[in-house]
Amino acid sequence: MEELEHTCPHPRTTLTEPAIFASETSCDCRAPHEKLSITQARRGTPVDRPVRVYADGIFDLFHSGHARALMQAKNLFPNTYLIVGVCSDELTHKYKGFTVMTEHERYEALRHCRYVDEVLRDAPWTLTPEFLEKHKIDFVAHDDIPYSSAGSEDVYKHIKEAGMFVPTQRTEGISTSDIITRIVRDYDVYARRNLQRGYTAKELNVSYINEKKYRLQNQVDRMKEKVRNVEEKSKHFVYRVEEKSHDLIQKWEEKSREFIGNFLELFGPDGTWKQVFQERSGRMLSYALSPRESPCNSPPRELSPLRSPSPPSPPARWYNARPSPPTSPKGASASISSMSEGDEDEK
User: Which Gene3D superfamilies does this UniProt record tie to the protein (predicted)?
Assistant: First the structure.
């Protein structure tokens, strides 16, 4: 009998395209699918096909906790083909509650996770042996906290008993319930945010009064932001003025010290000006005490032939001398009589 080769799909080697959706049969391989133990799978056997690991969930508001769980499932064995089952809206609303994202949005979110090789839509709430056989699933990955639902204390109990369960670790501090709790707690903040972004009160299911209140709060917040910006700019301006003032004062001090030093160097007790003044005073004193004499044998000054000697000045006449004004009437009469006598003598 001819031995059949395994034709199971292999893990993705490129991340340029999203993961595929599982078909009706999921795996068309007709080769016998032997059951593996965890020890065998971790050793890398079998070598002719990948280890098919299944992880299921709701994956509403897909977050880092979901991604980390799928990363752990993908890295359980050296050659892992990860199949992710996503439950439909009908099953989720029936057994768990309403979701934020629709089933199609959740399917697409899982397709674009790098660790996922295949997405199984409308996954069952409870895994049956027929389902595991149909999709040739070797192991099921999930956190080991008992998951009570659909009238069962743990929906993975029979998987654990069959030795097909591989636990993963939960990420603390992040979950879909935590995210929804934050939104509900800060509902007013997000309602105001979306009103500001253009959503209508009807779309947000907000009453008329609350809408006006939120819009007024948004205006107040905008005014606060403007005031805060003005304060920041003012602080920055004051800081720049202080910095410039410090620089100017520093430069002024440097110039002042330089000016004072130059002044003292010039006019100080031992300055240059004093030395110059002393030197000039000494020269002037020496000239005053010993004037220069003209030589004895110097030739007499000759008149220029071109210039004629100036005529002698006429003798001073007596009438040119103006008498001083009299100090009294008697003096005035005496001066007049003397002037008349002089005229007569001249005649």
Answer: HUPs (3.40.50.620)
- The pLDDT tens digits of the residues spanning 109-118 come to 999 999 999 9
Q: Do 141 and 168 touch, CB atoms closer than 8 A? A: yes
**Strand pairing category for 139-143 and 118-121:** unpaired
Strands 80-86 and 165-168: unpaired
Tokens 């674009």, residue? 112
At the top level of CATH, which class does the domain 20-168 belong to? alpha beta
Joined tokens for residue 308: 């004629």
**Alpha-carbon distance values, 347 to 315, 321, 341 (Å):** 19, 20, 10
Q: What is the pLDDT of residues 35-91, one digit of tens each?
A: 888 999 998 877 788 999 999 999 999 999 999 999 999 999 999 999 999 999 999
- In the chain, what are the domain boundaries? 20-168, 176-271
- C-alpha distances (whole Å) from 104 to each of 58, 86, 262 are 12, 10, 88
Length reported for the chain: 347
Q: Which residues contact 40 (CB under 8 A, 6 or more apart)?
A: 46
> What whole-number distance in Å separates Cα of residue 124 and Cα of residue 92?
10
Q: What is the reported pTM?
A: 0.61
Gyration radius of the chain's alpha carbons: 59
Residue that is written with structure tokens 């910095």 in the block: 243
Going across the sheet that includes 139-143, the strands are: 20-21, 118-121, 80-86, 51-57, 139-143, 165-168
Which two three-digit tokens encode residue 197? 């972004």
Residue 200's identity, in one-letter code, is T
Taking CA atoms, 210 is separated from 180, 194, 196, in Å, by: 21, 13, 14
First to last CA, the chain: 190
Cα dihedral value 230, 232, 234, 237, nearest 10 = -140
